[in-house]
Amino acid sequence: MTSIADGAVCIQTAAESALATPSWFGEAVLLTAHLRKHGVFHQLQEQVRCARRRFGRYDVIDFLAVLFGYAVSGERTLEEYYERLWPFAIPFVALFGRDQLPSRSALSRFLAALTEAPVEALRTLFLDDLLARPLTADQQTGGLGDRAGNAWVGIDIDGTREAARQRAVPQTNDLPPSFRRLEEVCAPGYTGRKRGEVVRTRAVISQAHSSHWLGSFGNRGNGRYRDELRKGLAAIGRYLTAHHLDATHALLRLDGQYGLGAVLSDVAGFAFVTRGKDYRVLDHPLIQARLHLPPDQFQQRPESQLVRSLYDCPQIPVGPEGTSYRVIVATHPAGTKPSPVGVTRAGVVYELFFTNLPQHGFTAGDVVEVYLHRGAFEPTLSDEDCEQDPDRWCSHSAWGQECWQVIAQWTWNLRLELGHQLKPQPVRTTEFAPALPLPAPYTAPASGYAPPAVGSAWNSARFASQDFALQPDGSLRCPADQPLTPHEHRREADGSLRVVYGASIHSCRSCRLREQCQWNGAATAKPRQVSVLLHPLRVGPAPLLWRDWSRRVHRRACMHLLRHQRIEVGLSPPAIAPPCAAEVILSRAQRAHTRLSWVVRFARNARVPTASQVTIRLFGVPDDLATSLGLTTASPRTSRPPDAFCSDDFVAPSDPSWTFFLTAPHFLPGGLPIPCFIHFPRHHHLVLNGFHSSDGISLSHDLVAQFVGPVSSSAPSSRH
User: Fold this and answer.
1) Domain map of the chain by residue range?
2) 557 pLDDT band (50/70/90 cuts)?
3) What is the CA radius of gyration of the chain?
């Protein structure tokens, strides 16, 4: 030990290693206590089973424990994670009731050997655990209230991707074929803004109000988005059933890749809104005719100068099956740069939005705003990347990577649950869109227009307005196959817009059907006119209300609770000394190397009752949270474990006497720690000392006095 003193500060160093506990170790203890209380470890043992060769002494729970810790830690790589965890391997695996920690190579072999069955069982158990307990005591889920007073639950389905770099390798006839490690996980595809030659895409499902993950489904390349969508809908169905919600009021906000009629048939029975990418729908006669009429509404985001003109077109057949959906067309002038979304025709950018939301609850502007609000999902994915980064490569096996991503989402949900216990807050309500104002006379309605309508017949023997069909070019076609063009827009007192169409007088004079068309027949001096009425759309008087919780507050309350708190880890001597080696009697099954049963496999690495007791003391845990987790609340005066290991975050006591445990515990190489009771006279400066003895013999008072001065001869028994 060396010492440097300048009169005010005394700095001392020691050659012995005294590692600090990882900052995330306390959070891992809380999460494992939460899982143990609810019997999740037993369910993992019974339901998630993987049979493979060379299984060794480890079972599935051993490797899942490693992945849980990896998700909590936020370490950049598995190598860094193992480097921080390995000195505390015994206390960590003891949290799961296990004896030894699997090595990195054993974890890699396990992930490579995983198949679909155990991963799907793990995914089922992950969703079961989410649905087993409500997020809040009043069992609220959040929601969206429409203008008619109906409640909807928003669920986001989106895709995220991870690209991988692959260096070029020589390809000649004299060289064997090359093998890529990520060939099973990745494939060429759309990489987005990420650099790489191959990519893996996964679809993620999130409850938009509570920020819970409901599932993750990945595949090579651009993925199999329809298969992933069907699996996601099954998970959503289970969530709605558990909360007694109707599937017709689950509002799915889908990514644009699902904007095809064939794909939308898969979400039958759910309400949805998505950006359409089948731009052949624009050529439908009903849409072309509607585009020649005035727009229903104008939409502009506060942060953008772009103003969209919205056209609401209900009951438009979409897709090969011709299923009718509500189509909203948004147009705006094209700029100097190509538009990243939509299609440009004649200097106008057209965007499509497909939905089946009712018009009386959502205007065209409401539908577009609800879809564009999906942008709030991007910060959630960004938080996931920063805290866990589940898209990083954990395995070169497809199912191994899927297993890791399920564990990462499970950890996210556990943080949310514990965060709501730490900071219980009621659901907050946001006015998503204000109530529509009452229309003033002779002004355009704020709700938009109903579908175009024509006047009723005034004489059964004459042609009525219904006989004049609206054409895609914006004109009307009379029974004599002559066009009528609009020449007047007239605003009515109730806000309706009357569009007056007129024929050419030259066409009417020579028409053979003039007697059936005009009131006075050939005596009429004016051409035929027809009016098309756009009545105001009738919607509910209520505003759109969005009910949710903060996306970050609860989750980060759990993350930061113990990140800067002191943690004491102690390992007591075994209760019973290990017996002497006795003669081993093998059974005939052991001699024949018969496959081990599931129970025997699980017991090979189980922690025996006679093993050393691990004592972990956490500081900064509220009593209510400790009680809910079934943890023992220690008194501030309780003595520390005999082999305690303190982190480097010290809290000085109020009295001048302090016991230090600053050396490595038994499960670290280098010897035994020596607890020292040191009395500091009030006129002395505070000096931190670390003492170590390889043979376990206590240091003498004289030796201590050489460094810190006189040592009290009497010490309270509770301090030893």
Assistant:
1) 453-534
2) very high
3) 36
CB atoms within 10 A of CB 477: 15
CB contact at 8 A, 122 and 82 = no
Residue 252's DSSP bridge partners are 155, 272
Give the model's pLDDT for residue 684. Answer: 34
Per-residue pLDDT tens digits for 297-343:
999 988 888 899 999 999 999 988 889 999 999 999 998 888 889 99
Structure tokens given for 275: 């950006």
Cα-flanking dihedrals φ and ψ of residue 161, to 5°?
Answer: -140, 155
pLDDT at residue 683 is higher than 50:
no
Taking the chain, what is the end-to-end CA distance rounded to the nearest angstrom? Answer: 24
- Report the chain's mean pLDDT, rounded to a whole number: 83
Q: Is 567 helix (H, G, I), strand (E, B) or coil?
A: strand
Convert the pLDDT of each residue in 559-588 to its tens digit.
999 999 999 998 888 766 656 666 778 788
Cβ of 342: how many Cβ atoms within 10 Å?
21
List the one residue out of 200, 198, 215 whose CA is nearest residue 162: 200
Residue 30 in contact with residue 560, Cβ under 8 Å? Answer: no
**Is 595:667 a contact under the CB 8 Å cutoff?**
no
**Distances, alpha carbon 345 to alpha carbons 21, 278, 332, 471, 665, in Å:** 63, 15, 11, 19, 73
Please determine, for residue 658, whether its predicted confidence score (pLDDT) is greater than 60: no
Cβ contacts of 97 within 8 Å, gap of 6 or more: 41, 606, 607
The set of long-range contacts for 442-445, using a CB threshold of 8 Å and a minimum separation of 24, is 442/491, 442/492, 442/493, 442/495, 443/491, 443/495, 444/491, 444/495, 444/497, 445/495, 445/536, 445/537
- Per-residue CA distances from 413 to 217, 497, 597 (Å): 17, 52, 33
Is 127:640 a contact under the CB 8 Å cutoff?
A: no
Q: What is the pLDDT of residues 591-622, one digit of tens each?
A: 887 788 888 888 888 988 878 889 999 999 99
Look up the pTM and report it: 0.82
Instruction: Report which of 650, 640, 652, 619 is spatially closest to residue 720, judged by C-alpha positions.
Output: 640
Does pLDDT of 711 surpass 60? Answer: no
Query: What whole-number distance in Å separates Cα of residue 403 and Cα of residue 9?
Result: 52
Concatenate the DSSP letters of all residues of 417-460 into one string.
Answer: HHHHHHS--PPEEEEEEPPPPPPPTTS--TT-BPSPEEPPPS-T
Q: Which residues contact 639 (CB under 8 A, 6 or more apart)?
A: 718, 719, 720
CB atoms within 10 A of CB 66: 26
With beta carbons less than 8 A apart as the criterion, state whether 559 and 71 touch. Answer: no
